[in-house]
Design brief:
two-stranded antiparallel ribbon, mainly beta, 5 strands
């Protein structure tokens, strides 16, 4: 089993999993984005799991839409 994931920087990541255990055993950059600023993201470079996890500092802000008006909470 294999998957393609798009990283927040825009690069495409190929993830290969063992078919019976479904444990990922390979995470390789398949295509680098034109807008990527990470120097380590080269085609064929292996990534560790913690490099593809979301940034813990990122705090999503809920946005509510009512009657055609958008209300964002701060």
């Amino acid at each position: 089993m294999s998957y393609n994931l798009t990283l927040p920087c825009g690069c495409l990541l190929y993830v290969a999993c063992h078919p019976s255990t479904r444990v990922a055993h390979a995470r390789v950059i398949e295509r680098r984005s034109d807008t990527c600023r990470d120097r380590r993201h080269g085609v064929g470079v292996r990534l560790y799991l913690w490099e593809i996890l979301p940034d813990p500092r990122y705090q999503p802000r809920p946005v509510f839409v009512t009657d055609g008006r958008t209300i964002a909470l701060a």
